[in-house]
Amino acid sequence: FVTYTLGVMVGQDIWQRFFTGKTKRVSKASGVLVGLYSALYSIVMVIVGMCAYVLFPNIQNTQNVFAHMAFEILPNGLLG
């Protein structure tokens, strides 16, 4: 969570939202929305990791948990 949040803080796309806002209100709203999106994204990734821990307790390669979950859980049409 901390690593992702710090990465977002230095992201050029985030600062571009602030500098291109037509008014202060728009810039503040974009900052709040980016913060909410970042928190939501982090929480979703943590939930996926916890689900993987419960569903696949003996998984060998923990670096590929998200891909393993996708291949085991999602139907073929959603895999892409």
- Let me know the average pLDDT: 82
Main β-sheet description? none
Helix content: over 70%
Number of helices: 5
How many DSSP E strands?
Answer: 0
Helix-strand pattern: HHHHH
Helix and strand content put the structural class at mainly alpha
Our count of domains comes out at: 1
Strand content: under 5%
User: How would the global form be characterised?
Assistant: elongated
Cα gyration radius (Å): 17 Å
* Residue runs with pLDDT of under 50 for 5 or more positions: none
Kindly report how far apart the N and C termini lie. 27 Å
What does this structure look like?
It is a single chain. With 80 residues, the chain is an all-alpha fold. The protein has helices at residues 2-9, 12-19, 24-55, 65-73, 76-79. Helix 2 (12-19) packs antiparallel against helix 3. The longest helix is centred in the middle third of the chain and has 32 residues, at 24-55. One of its GO terms (cellular component) is membrane. Keywords: Membrane, Transmembrane, Transmembrane helix. Belongs to the sodium:solute symporter (SSF) (TC 2.A.21) family. GO terms for molecular function: transmembrane transporter activity.
Overview features:
single chain; 80 residues; mainly alpha; 5 helices; 0% strand
Summarize the model shown.
The protein is an all-alpha fold. The protein is 76% helix and 0% strand.
